[in-house]
Amino acid sequence: MERAVKPWPLLAALAVLGAGGLYASGLAMAPGSFSRHMGAHLLLSLGAAPLLVLGWPRFRPVVAGPLAFLLLNAVTYGVHLPVVYARLMTPAGMLLESLLFLGAGAVFWLRVAAGGLGAAGLLLAQMAACALLGAAITFSRSAYAMTTPGDTALGGVLMWVVGGFVVMAAAFYHLLVQLSVSERRHEQAT
After folding, report:
1. CA distance 181 to 48
2. Which of 7, 53, 58, 184 has the fewest CB atoms within 10 Å around its CB?
3. pLDDT < 70 stretches in the chain
4. Is the peptide bond before 7 cis (omega within 30 degrees of 0)?
5. Which of 35, 12, 13, 31 is nearest to 22 (CA)?
6. Under the phi-then-psi rule, with left for phi > 0, alpha for psi from -120 to 50, and beta for the rest, what region is 30?
7. For residues 179 and 146, is the Cβ–Cβ distance under 8 A?
8. Where are the bilayer-spanning segments (predicted)?
């Protein structure tokens, strides 16, 4: 009997490689590209992390929703403090940042994978968190001195729109699943 190969680990690896490429191209630029850097963050926390979770369905430790939310946002908001961001602009700092985003993202998506209304609520809260930080970055163009104001604004828009869309789509999926489960229960009861 042949086992089906799951595409999720390969897709996760490709997302990690894509993030690495964005980081590398950002390091080579003077000033560094904040928007590419933001793209790498999004690939790691909202691309590679959920794909890794999907790729290993047998590994599902129980993660509390508030803990998952706080961890991902502590990393996301902490790394985007201008002073912290400037200090992490070294190869070692970017590796640390990558591991933080991938790890915190995996914890977040482990909770989401558990399903239920809690997953949908967690995703909606994360959508608001992405929008808030993305908007703050978009309109604080001079906070990141190592890049141009336009590039900073583009990075903020990426987080605001792309990051918000990814978690909104996942929240919509989880809400539809909950409605379907509720409908089936109702049909069975009648």
Report:
1. 28
2. 58
3. 1-6, 8-10, 12, 19, 21-32, 141
4. no
5. 35
6. beta
7. no
8. 34-55, 67-86, 92-110, 117-137, 157-176
Contacts of 77 (CB under 8 A, 6+ apart): 133
Burial of 125 (0-12, 13-18, 19+ CB in 10 A): middle
Tokens 């903020």 locate to 156
Q: How buried is residue 121: exposed, middle or buried, by Cβ count under 10 Å (0-12/13-18/19+)?
A: middle
Query: What are the tokens at 155?
Result: 């990075």
Exposure string of 129-167, with b = 16+ CB inside 10 Å and e = fewer, is bbbebbeebbeebebbebbeeebbbbbbbbbbeebbebb
Query: Which residue in the block uniquely carries the two structure tokens 């000033």?
Result: 31
Distance of CA 189 to the CA centre of its chain: 39
